[in-house]
Amino acid sequence: MEFNEIIETRRSIRKFKDKNVEMDLIEKIILNGIWAPSAGNIQSWDVIIVQENENKSKISKAAYMRDFISKSQFILVVCANMERSAEVYGERGRELYCIQDASAATQNMLLTAHNLGLGACWVGSFNEDAVCDILNIPKSVRPVALIIIGYPDEKPYPPTRRSIDEVIHIEKY
């Protein structure tokens, strides 16, 4: 697939086949996350791989009962490592750069999953404290995205997008 096609055909997938995703594909997805740009190349993010049904069910509840989460093959919990970024950038690293780094890595992982023939969905709405408790995440690390992964069992239509004229501002807003 050409790069534009990968970007333009990626969709949020919430329905998955009952088919195992190989761990080597998950590793490829995470590896491409590592290649995302990051402030000072610090890569101030970490990922927790979740595949046990009990943990997927708990995370589904923490994400306000979204059943598709527990039915996925894997959940990648992308976390901002606040202290790793703060060591170099202080408060701005802790509050912003680590979130940006985790977000860039998340986008790379979503595009990679799609390119590998997998379905994925970025879930950002969840009870952060509950996810931290479930996965024993330390206070210096913040979960910012759940990437739900499996083989797709749906093909959603493309959502509408704003036109380029609606998003461009020259010199001033």
Q: What integer is the average pLDDT?
A: 96
Summarize the biggest pleated sheet. 4 strands, antiparallel
CATH class annotation? Alpha Beta
Poorly predicted regions are none
Strand order of the largest sheet: 1-2-4-3
How many strand units? 4
Q: State the helical fraction.
A: 40-55%
Strand content: 15-25%
The topology string of helices and strands comes to: HHEHHEHEHEH
User: Structural class of the helices, strands and pairings?
Assistant: alpha+beta
Instruction: Determine the CATH topology.
Output: NADH Oxidase
> How many angstroms separate the termini?
36 Å
Instruction: Look at the structure and name the CATH superfamily.
Output: NADH Oxidase
Q: What's the architecture, going by CATH?
A: 3-Layer(aba) Sandwich
Break the fold down into its secondary structure elements and pairings.
Layout: H1 3-9, H2 23-34, E1 45-50, H3 53-62, H4 67-70, E2 74-81, H5 82-115, E3 119-123, H6 128-135, E4 141-150, H7 164-167
Antiparallel strand pairs: 1-2, 2-4, 3-4
Helix pairs in contact: 2-5, 3-6
